[in-house]
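Data availability (excerpt). All sequences and predicted token strings are deposited with the supplementary files. A representative entry, Rhodanese-related sulfurtransferase, is shown inline so that the format can be inspected without opening the archive.
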Amino acid sequence: MKKTHGLAGCLLAVMLAAGPALAEEVAAYRETQLGLYVTASEAYELMQDNDRAILIDVRDPVEIKFTGFAEPTDIHVPWVLADRDHFNADAKTWPMVKNADFEAQVRAELEALDVAEDDPIIVMCRSGSTRSAPGADAIAEMGFNRVYSVTDGFEGGKLEAGDSKGVRAVNGWRNSGLPWSYEIDPDVAWRPVE
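Structure token line:
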């Protein structure tokens, strides 16, 4: 069974700066329809305990190239992609756009792995909110009923103080001593639909 920042971040920052009412909406955005959540460590433990558990990484491929990849990843399909054709001079970055093929690509990968409706599916992004939660919801809407969002994502949270303040070095897959690498499994690496 098992194979051996952009616009969303800007939106989150704007909502948090706008005050408590919008901050509550941001927290709700982390919520999923099924209400199933795991930390990166819990996700890894679930995968060790259940060989039918599937890990899906929904980050942009360029992000993975520079931050690393969880070694036991079964499927890599980005929820959003950097639009490299449209640089936003005001934001000083490329906008993120939804991967229009997300649902079809994930469904095809899940079918290829013969994933059952009640098999655990674990969805992970960078920090556990703006991509893993909606990605998990899209997969749940396909009829899968055990879809978890990794609450601390691959990189985890930011340091609150010190010389490295703001660096993502708190929890998350990479900071929890879980197996990861800068090398990406060619059999798992996402490829755009042609």
